[in-house]
Task: structure prediction
Amino acid sequence: MAPPPPPATPADVTPADVTLGILAGGRASRLGGLDKAWLHRDGRSQIESIIAELTPLVGAVLVSANRNAERYRALALDVVADAHPDCGPVGGLHALAHACATPWLLTVPVDALRLAPAAVRALIAHAPAFAEDDDGLQPLFACWPAHRLTMAAAQAIADGRLPVRGLHAALGMRAVAISGTIGNLNTADDLAAAGVRPDARRP
Result:
């Protein structure tokens, strides 16, 4: 089978050319194994907040998750599990890219706090690219050429080269500066600062 044609140049990309891939397969070891996708703040879960913000900018949505698949499906989301579950984010990126049916894959960690549409548009306009906010590099907030990412991630896993920055280098990706900070939910202090409390989490 011949490989798919190269993706459209960023100037020609439309929402139909982009799949949103939400990375929700982490173990959240610093939060006692909480599933971050279902942490609630401002009246809705993390996954619902990301969908509401970003689905108008893309043509399809995938979630990389290794548990609670039925909860995502209840939101009419397509879920893919890691084929290589012990490989960290690279395993999730491989799963999303393999399942992606569009030329471009926009990835977002499920614990991201601020995902301004303007920042997403900037990533797509400069793709292949990843974000750099006021806190530094954000390697998983990125717009990837999906077919090439599938191959690069598979090779990285086979070689045991798991840092995401290695994929950036392999795919010739650039850092795109975005104003402000994205933020995330990694620790109990992060939850408190974001207004997430124990009684606001779904079981």
In short: The first helix runs from residue 46 to 54. The chain is about 30% helix and 20% strand.
